Amino acid sequence: MLTPPPFTSQPKDYLATVDLALVSVLLLREKGSTSVTQLAKDLDINPPRAHRILQMLTYRGFATRTESRTYLAGPSLSSTGIKPGYGFALTRLVQDHITAISRESHETCHLIVRSGTNCHFLHSEEGSLPVRVGNRRGQVIPAHLNSGGLATLTDLSTHELSSLYPDMGEKEMLDLRRVLHRVRKQGFAVNQGMYEKDVSAIGIALRNDVGDTLGALSLAIPTSRFRQVRDRCIEIMVRRCKELNQVLEKNHTTHSESLKRVKISTTGIHP
C-alpha cells in the first residue's frame, strides 16, 4: 500500500473509508494523474472500490475524468492565484462566440487564461458529437502543453520565457522557442496529444486594441478524428477569432478589466 505518512497518531474514531479517500486525494495531488487500476494498486484495494472513490472525488471536483479513462487532479486541488469570479468580464464578452464556434465545428471550445506557467480553463462549451472532449472548466494544466497556453506564450521575449521557465533545459527551451515561432508565423497553435494523448486542439490568442493578450480560445478535438477535421476547424477558428478580436478591440477591453473578479451576494452576481 503506497500512502503518504500521517501527520499524527491514528485517531480513536479512525474511519478507514474516509482515510482511503483522503489518501487518494494526496496521491492524485502528488502524481497529477491516476487510473482505477493504479489507484487500486497504490491503496491495496480492489478496482471496484477504487472506482467508487474516484467517482466521489470527481463529484466534488478533486478529480477530472478524461476521455482515455484516466483521472487528472481536479479544480478543487488547484493551488493557484485564480479566485472565484476571475475572468467574469472576459467570459461574458466571448461566451456567445464560443457557443457559435462549438455549434459550427461540433467540437468543444474552451476559454483559457494564463497565470504564470499554468493555464486556467474559465469556460467550456461542449461539442454535439457523441464522441467529444468533455467540459474542462476549472481545470489547470501547464501552459506549454496545450494550444491555448502556447498561443498566449508567443508574446514573451526570450528573456521573459527563460525567466518563466528557469529550470527548463537548453534543448527543451530551444524546442519551445521553435514551436512558439511557428505559432507566431501561422497565427494559431496546434496541440496533438501533448498533455492528453486522446485530445488534440487548436488555439488562438485573444487580444485588445493595443495588442495585449487577454487569453485564448481552444477548440478541442478527439485525436482519433483530428486529421480529418483539422483544416476545417482551423478555418473556423481563424475566422471566428478574427471577428471576436475585432469585438474586443472595439470594446477597448483592458487586461485588468477582462480578468476582474465579481462579488457574489445573496441578490446575485455583480461585476
What's the topology here?
Elements: H1 16-31, E1 33-34, H2 36-43, H3 47-59, E2 63-65, E3 71-73, H4 88-105, E4 108-115, E5 118-125, E6 140-142, H5 147-153, H6 158-164, H7 170-186, E7 189-192, E8 199-207, E9 213-222, H8 223-250, H9 255-258, E10 263-265, E11 268-270
Antiparallel strand pairs: 1-3, 2-3, 4-5, 4-9, 5-6, 7-8, 8-9, 10-11
Helix pairs in contact: 2-3, 4-8
Protein name: Helix-turn-helix domain-containing protein
Pfam families: HTH_IclR, IclR_C
Domain IclR-ED: 76-261
- Overall pLDDT, averaged? 85
State the oligomer: single chain
State the order of secondary-structure elements, H for helix, E for strand: HEHHEEHEEEHHHEEEHHEE
**Secondary structure tally: strands:** 11
> Which geometry do the CA atoms define?
globular
Tell me the CATH superfamily of the largest domain.
Answer: GAF domain
Number of domains: 2
CATH fold annotation of the largest domain: Beta-Lactamase
Number of helix segments? 9
- Could you estimate the helical fraction of the residues in percent? 40-55%
User: Residue ranges: pLDDT <50 for 5 or more in a row?
Assistant: 261-271
Strand order of the largest sheet: 6-5-4-9-8-7
